[in-house]
Design goal:
A two-stranded antiparallel ribbon has the order 1-2. A hairpin with a 2-residue loop joins strand 1 and strand 2. The relative contact order is 0.11. It is built from ten helices and two strands, in the order ααααααααββαα. It is elongated. It is mainly α. Helix 2 packs across helix 5.
Length: 183
């Protein structure tokens, strides 16, 4: 078979590597294609779950820094000390830089200053239906009661990467504006 024929064939048929002298028919090729598709889907679901859990953690750590009044209680260098302690414990993580801890605190403060307004706006965001597909990941196992808030963490936040959250808070003048970008 010429290279040109191989190229044409590869565009029309799924690529299957033969390792033994076996008969590969259309059913087998379809089955392999289905397995690949399910695996890719599982990878996406896992990434969404990991992102959601990390964001929830960042939200809670930002909340802790605010609610414990960390600087007042332990001194002005407490965020730097938290960074050192967490980096020592989790050396492979890039999440615990001093700057990132300040971002977590800033993120929490930005939204927590007016929790009722935040709940109202998130409810409105969810009622538009735009977010239903984004937050209905079976692997997340979110019940109806958990869909809106988990420990005051708005679940639509779980669909946005951390770096985007940081930029949104830094450049938004209001919760309404920030949720516009999240929505």
């Amino acid at each position: 078979m010429t290279q040109e024929n191989k190229d044409i064939q590869s565009k029309n048929e799924p690529y299957v590597v033969k390792s033994h002298n076996i008969h590969i028919d259309a059913d087998y090729a379809d089955w392999i294609a289905d397995i690949k598709s399910r695996y890719r889907s599982a990878q996406v679901k896992a990434a969404v779950k990991v992102n959601a859990e990390k964001l929830l953690f960042n939200w809670q750590l930002g909340r802790d820094l605010v609610q414990k009044k960390a600087e007042e209680r332990w001194g002005a260098g407490v965020v730097e000390q938290v960074s050192l302690d967490l980096n020592r414990e989790f050396p492979d993580s890039t999440n615990f830089s001093v700057r990132n801890l300040w971002y977590m605190k800033q993120w929490y403060i930005f939204y927590a200053e007016n929790p009722e307004k935040l709940k109202q706006l998130v409810s409105e965001l969810l009622s538009t239906g735009r977010y239903e597909k984004k937050i209905q990941y079976p692997s997340l196992d979110w019940s109806e009661n958990m869909k809106q808030f988990v420990s005051e963490f708005p679940l639509p936040f779980a669909c946005v990467p951390w770096g985007h959250h940081v930029r949104i808070v830094q450049h938004s003048k209001s919760i309404e504006e920030a949720l516009f970008y999240i929505g």
